[in-house]
Fold:
Amino acid sequence: SCSCSCSPSYFPLPPPLFPFLPTSLFLFYTGIMSSKRVGDADEESYEPPKLPKTLHERESSKRLIVILEQASLETIKVGKSYQLLNNTDHAGLLKKQNRDPKNIRPDIVHQCLLMLLDSPLNKAGLLQVYIHTSRNVLIEVHPQTRIPRVFSRFCGLMVQLLHELSISAKGSTKKLLKVIKNPITDHLPTGCKKIGTSYQCKKMIRTRIFAEKEAKDAPICFVVGAVAHGRVDIDYVDEAVAVSKYAMSAAGVCGKLTDGFEECWGVW
Structure:
């Protein structure tokens, strides 16, 4: 018997049923039932920051632009419905098509978006995110987008986006996710520096110092490969840098970038 004073109302199942549930099933069940994002109550009372609206503001105001390159977002038809292709649920199909499962990782995009959109930098209105998929689909992510934390729900959202080309806020015409026209350079501020990232680069930077030197009061763009391994080679970057001497996940690189620019711009 539990000696704590927990109220039964905190549990999605009546307390008497808990002893009969296997631990893994209990954790799975409660995780799904309580998958509402942490801090939702606080976010509902949170006033969204002012975002750059005019052409002048978009061209000149300081902000970090992150492009998730070569993202694996692709739909397939399974039975009568469409699913987001991934290397866990569709391993057999990938094997038949002679495709490397390591390259089919939509979970990397999911991790990056959670890292970026949860950051104080984004909440301060100083971050803009784009996704460029391996199928040459370009997606603009509104800073006020709330990405589902459960991966299966994220997959469903991406399938809807790729088929309908936009996702609007509930009860509003504001588009939180939308497919936009290529190339990405048409959507970047004029003269904005475009920096690629790879730990294999000889030039290593500390993001805060780099931000103070290159983007103290101006927009700057970083390109992060949304891939499991290897370097993403793109032709529109001005230079490539490493943010660590160690190989890092794409989400880890995103975290390093937002931390550095938060320190530079005084965002806490």
Remarks:
- The first strand starts at residue 64 and ends at 71.
